Structure formats: structure tokens, C-alpha cells
Structure to design on (276 residues):
């Protein structure tokens, strides 16, 4: 009987040559867990930041979703280019597949497009982060259960209860879907937002865009994750104040420091119902 497969793809920016050791380690972890790795042959940057054309990058992902032996399609990229591929994704194949998509950061736009077009959930997690932090057992648990627990440090900043389907991810990359058919309906949903290199002005502008779009009039709750640069430069309460100033007093808001861009970040299942 042939092994189940795990695919490694690259829908966003091509990888840098100095990332090869970590990618090889990720592949080795997949093999250690008993899966056959299937790796996109053009992972590394060739033309600008691209490793291949958007059509090529999407075609590989489509082929993996069409393969019934593939258990997970793990995107190991990030950056800016993932939304180039969305128009070329085969959402019918994704809807019919048993494979779960993994990705974070720029792949937020793909994860939420998948939900909008198919109703399927995905894991907000990059597999190479698990290799960096040597969390083989956590990778195994995520592959086995295809689910993740909510972070244990969740603390309410406002309100005391929230419930709904969890959507979102990186705040900048989610907004790349605004005005497209791929932006999910946020009505009654719990929105998760995190950021990496955003300045205080950048975060303020992104929150203002959400307010203008009516996001905070629709959602049932907001979870704020790590804001790597902002937390470091301005302290952990800066993002909390920015959020509370813009969302209004009726929306429950919770905070976690365990989900974002850190190498020990926990995964979140985007597209699943949660209750806090």
C-alpha cells in the first residue's frame, strides 16, 4: 500500500537560497512521520521574487488537491505574491479534496479565499516554522487531527463571550481580498488578526480600512494575535489600544500572544466554529 503524501508548495514569494537547510529539515520531518513528501520543483526565487509563474504555482497546488493520497498541502512561502495565484486555483478540486491547506502570513489571502469559495477550513501555520522550532510532535498532532486547540492564554480585553466561525489571519494580507469575490462574508464571524512588520501608522490605517468596510459592524468577536514589530517597539498594549479605539464598545475583543509570526506560534483552524 502506498504512503499518504504531504505536498510542499510555494504560492507566494520564492524562497531564498539560505532557506534550503530549513526546507530540507521540513521535508525530513514529513518523512519521519511516515509521509511521502511531494515538493514543488521551483521553490526558489528566479525572476524577481517569483519562483515560477502564478499559473505554474497554482497548477502544482491544484494537482496536489486532485491527488486523493495527499493529506496536506503545505505552503512554505510568504511575502506578497500569493494573490497572483488565486484566480488560477481550482476551487472545485479543493472543495472535493480531503487535503487540508496549510499556510500563514501572505497565505492568509488564499486561506480565506478557500473558505469563501468552498466553505473549507485551513490551518494557519507554516510548516517550516515547525522545523525551525523542532516541533515534530506538534506537526504530527496537526496532521493526525487536522485541527488545533485555541491558545491557552486568550484573555478578554472587552466583553466576556464570543462565538462563530473563525476567519482572518494576517491583517494586511486579508485586506488584499477586499473588493473581490474571494473576500469572505464576515457576518457573525470571529475575526483573528495579527501582523509582522507593521508600524503603528500601518496598523492604524489597516484598522481604519476595516472600519470603513463595515467589518466591525458585522463580526461577533475579534481576536488579536502577535504584532511582532509593534509589540517590540511600542509594547504589547499598543495594538490593544489601537483596536479598542476603533472597534466600538459592543464587540467582544480577546488577545493572545501565542499565535502569529514567532517560531513557536501555535496553529489556528481558519473556517472552524469556535466558542469562547
Amino acid at each position: 500500500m502506498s504512503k499518504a503524501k504531504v505536498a510542499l508548495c510555494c504560492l507566494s514569494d520564492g524562497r531564498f537560497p539560505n532557506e534550503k537547510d530549513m526546507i530540507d529539515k521540513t521535508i525530513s520531518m514529513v518523512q519521519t512521520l511516515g509521509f511521502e513528501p511531494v515538493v514543488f520543483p521551483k521553490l526558489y526565487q528566479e525572476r524577481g521574487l517569483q519562483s515560477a509563474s502564478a499559473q505554474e504555482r497554482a497548477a502544482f497546488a491544484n494537482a496536489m488537491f486532485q491527488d486523493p493520497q495527499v493529506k496536506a498541502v503545505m505552503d512554505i512561502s510568504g511575502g506578497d505574491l500569493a494573490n497572483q495565484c488565486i484566480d488560477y486555483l481550482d476551487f472545485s478540486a479543493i472543495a472535493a479534496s480531503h487535503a487540508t491547506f496549510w499556510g500563514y502570513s501572505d497565505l492568509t489571502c488564499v486561506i480565506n479565499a478557500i473558505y469563501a469559495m468552498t466553505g473549507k477550513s485551513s490551518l494557519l501555520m507554516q510548516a517550516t516554522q515547525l522545523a525551525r522550532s523542532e516541533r515534530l510532535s506538534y506537526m504530527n498532532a496537526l496532521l493526525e487531527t487536522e485541527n488545533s486547540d485555541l491558545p491557552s492564554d486568550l484573555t478578554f480585553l472587552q466583553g466576556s463571550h464570543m462565538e462563530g466561525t473563525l476567519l482572518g489571519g494576517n491583517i494586511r494580507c486579508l485586506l488584499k481580498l477586499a473588493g473581490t469575490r474571494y473576500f469572505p462574508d464576515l457576518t457573525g464571524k470571529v475575526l483573528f488578526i495579527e501582523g509582522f512588520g507593521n508600524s503603528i501608522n500601518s496598523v492604524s490605517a489597516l484598522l481604519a480600512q476595516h472600519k470603513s468596510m463595515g467589518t466591525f459592524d458585522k463580526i461577533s468577536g475579534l481576536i488579536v494575535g502577535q504584532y511582532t514589530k509593534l509589540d517590540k517597539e511600542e509594547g504589547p498594549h499598543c495594538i490593544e489600544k489601537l483596536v479598542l479605539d476603533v472597534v466600538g464598545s459592543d464587540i467582544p475583543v480577546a488577545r493572545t500572544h501565542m499565535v502569529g509570526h514567532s517560531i513557536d506560534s501555535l496553529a489556528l483552524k481558519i473556517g472552524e466554529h469556535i466558542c469562547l
Q: What stands out?
A: The mean pLDDT is 96. The radius of gyration is 18 Å. The longest strand covers residues 163-170.
